[in-house]
């Protein structure tokens, strides 16, 4: 079934996927009618969670990008219900591993009742209590105020004690971990350069799919998107030599997804360190003088 785009209802297709055959599920569901007039489906929370747990391999990961739209003047709580029910209420519960805030520019205009949303959830679940595949070197950022931190900061340990922050803790050539709040510019020219893909009303940004696929999988692993839409997940999986399965209800969007794959060239991606050994030479006072431009 790998390396296929399937037209169908994911609630009917998911039962046909073999147990423990998927390394990563990366998806952004049509979580409510408010999301788009192109969809009239909702998240069947318990049913989805049960399928996800079954098809994931031990140590497999689910990246669940979702927002909570407004219905009838009130914010919905779909994303929070998923956390509670998937970690407690399905036969074999998933484990909540991490939680990212995906920052975006709010849509223009005004809202009479509340501020426009400027971020969405990306929940990271895993199957089992063991380790997972994870490497975010490609997402690292430059250090800021590193010299001051090296001199004055202390870090709280798990036992409650404080230890001094040393230079070695801020001298990784790959740079600083970006944390779990990530900004992605959206819109024409940012979400994708595939102009025809904008026929889909709610595209996932390619940079989001790319970052999380590279972080949570290695080449040859299998990536599933059960709400594949115009195929951002499957395109990025193919680009980075992962196997893929995409499930989408609409033939029109599946055709777009296939075209995007057909027009994509696979690459051997090797992240590059931000700094060099020479950058790291000198005492702590000089360390903050590392140039911050690429």
Shape: globular
Strand content: 15-25%
* Rg (CA only): 21 Å
Q: What fold name goes in the CATH topology slot of the largest domain? A: Rossmann fold
Q: What's the number of domains? A: 2
In short:
The protein has 294 residues and is α/β, with parallel strands linked by helices. It has helices at residues 10-13, 45-55, 78-88, 146-152, 206-216, 232-239, 251-262, 284-287, and strands at residues 4-7, 22-27, 56-66, 70-71, 74-75, 95-103, 119-126, 154-156, 162-164, 181-183, 222-225, 243-248.
Quick tags:
294 residues, alpha/beta, Rossmann fold, 2 domains, 8-stranded mixed beta sheet, 8 helices, globular, disordered C terminus
Task: Describe the protein's architecture and organization.
The protein is an alpha/beta fold and 294 residues long. The protein has two domains: 4-140 and 178-263, Rossmann fold; 143-176 and 272-294, no CATH class. It has helices at 10-13, 45-55, 78-88, 146-152, 206-216, 232-239, 251-262, 284-287; strands at 4-7, 22-27, 56-66, 70-71, 74-75, 95-103, 119-126, 154-156, 162-164, 181-183, 222-225, 243-248. The strands form three sheets. An eight-stranded mixed β-sheet has the order 1-12-11-2-3-7-6-10, with helices on both faces. It is globular and about 55 Å long. The relative contact order is 0.18.
Layout: helices, strands, pairs:
Blueprint: E1 4-7, H1 10-13, E2 22-27, H2 45-55, E3 56-66, E4 70-71, E5 74-75, H3 78-88, E6 95-103, E7 119-126, H4 146-152, E8 154-156, E9 162-164, E10 181-183, H5 206-216, E11 222-225, H6 232-239, E12 243-248, H7 251-262, H8 284-287
Parallel strand pairs: 1-12, 2-3, 2-11, 6-10, 11-12
Antiparallel strand pairs: 3-7, 4-5, 6-7, 8-9
Helix pairs in contact: 2-3, 5-6, 6-7
